Amino acid sequence: MGRMYSMTYALSTIKGRGNVPVNQVLAPTRIIVSVVLPPLGNAGTTTLPEQYFSEAVRIEEKIRVDQLSKDERKRLREREIDLWTQVIENRSSPEPLKGQALVERAKRYSESHRCEQAIEDVNAFLRDGSNADAYQVRGQCYSIGGQYREAVSDYTSALALGATNPFIYESRGSANYELGEYSKAVEDFSVFLKVLPSFNVYEKRGDAYSFLEKYELAREDYAKALEDYVEATKGRAVEDSDSVQLRSKIARTYLSERNVKPAIDIYKKLIAEFPRNYEGYLGLAEAYLVGEDRRDLNSAIEAATKAVSLSRGNDAYAFAALAEARFRSGNVQGAVEVLERAVKLEPENQQFQDSMREYRQAK
Question: DSSP string spanning 288-334?
């Protein structure tokens, strides 16, 4: 009874329940500070715009280097933006100085997610000039706003102009990922990882490999991400959600290959290690359902029920897994009742809507 537990189900959770959607975790492109002090006149002859420029540079250096409170950092950042504005608006500012000030102010706006203002500054600069940093800043803002094609275009322009900041590749890879350009995302993440190995980017590349159905390569990246994460957090009290997530993703690659046993083993180990984390129970329920062995349905119901309880009824996928397990066991009315809870949490989820239609037709 019932359809095959969708092989894209576990995979789809990479962009859903399995981790925070990529567009929410797009790491802002780290903009390497490359402010060049303008040639200054002799002592006592420095112009006012040059003085503003120099002070802004000193403040930026202080922000980057010193250990500052949040309030002090915010105060200095606003002062720096004000100084760049003084350079831009001063009639005696040379055009090259004014142009660089526009780019630097755009960077500061971008870092505080004031993207509309940042894009205005970049557009003003690009009317008369071309600069890798400018394209990089605007690309970052486009990424934050979900304009991924525009972001890719700007990151590509920055690289074409000789930008060497490796984080551009990470950001372009993330934008390509959001566009479904998974092969291009892999290429960009690979360039970044050759320079700066990072568990976060190994995980992103693993996600891209998963969508390309290159599950062995995805497992390798998730395993490397897990190894680097454990090393990076060694000796510190950290939230274990990242560890659970990475191990869950390894398990899902096995499920996508219909290799249920290693996935079940992973989830059972997660449950033993983190008995209060519902992800392990939910993954175990999914694994039993992918296995399609009717003898495992009671185990799937038990695991999914535990996931619903531990998630305090706030995870739609826990309800969906429980609904599917009930449906396959012949409890159609119970499946409908539980799936209604999932739909209430995620009313736009098309998979839930499709399942609801199937369940009701079977009544």
Answer: HHHHT-GGGHHHHHHHHHHHHHHTTT--HHHHHHHHHHHHHTT-HHH
